[in-house]
Design brief:
The protein is mostly helical. Helix content is 72%, strand content 0%. It is globular, with a radius of gyration of 15 Å.
């Protein structure tokens, strides 16, 4: 699939979320919440396949965008945050409370980068390096979110 540079930049930036003058990752994760809502309707197996396909697509787009920019993991690439919030919300009941909790937990893991998130961030490069740490933060956030849902 050949996409032009403008399209790659648009997709990598989550539309225009990655172009905000502050906290582009936060805005990128917000872009992922409506997608998470839409994925709350199909059966888990289909949602899982869609999320997996999105992660692979995000890796490819991030890799292309990084090459276009000529800079390692530029901050305007936020498709990785979109993938991360999709993983965070996977198979969790989509309510306003759960979305807010999932968003806050994911952003916390994404910013603080506890092990293995920080390790993955430092030891992988290109598209996989941009996306894999956010997927790991999303997995950790999903586990914490599900634990909180069970007790609250």
């Amino acid at each position: 699939m050949a996409l032009n540079e403008k399209t790659i930049r648009f997709l990598a930036a989550g539309g225009y979320a990655g172009r905000t003058p502050f906290a582009p990752g936060t805005f990128g994760a917000l872009v992922g919440l409506p997608l998470s809502f839409l994925l709350s309707f199909p059966p888990f197996s289909l949602g899982f396949l869609v999320i997996l396909a999105f992660i692979l697509f995000a890796i490819w787009i991030a890799d292309q965008a990084e090459k276009i920019e000529g800079k390692k993991d530029p901050g305007w690439i936020v498709i990785d945050e979109i993938a991360g919030i999709l993983v965070t919300m996977a198979a969790a009941p989509f309510t306003l409370k759960n979305a807010l909790l999932g968003f806050l937990i994911f952003r916390g893991f994404d910013i603080v980068k506890p092990f293995p998130v920080g390790y993955l961030d430092k030891n992988f490069s290109g598209g996989p390096g941009i996306v894999i740490d956010d997927v790991a933060a999303g997995i950790m956030a999903n586990i914490v979110l599900r634990g909180l849902i069970a007790v609250i």
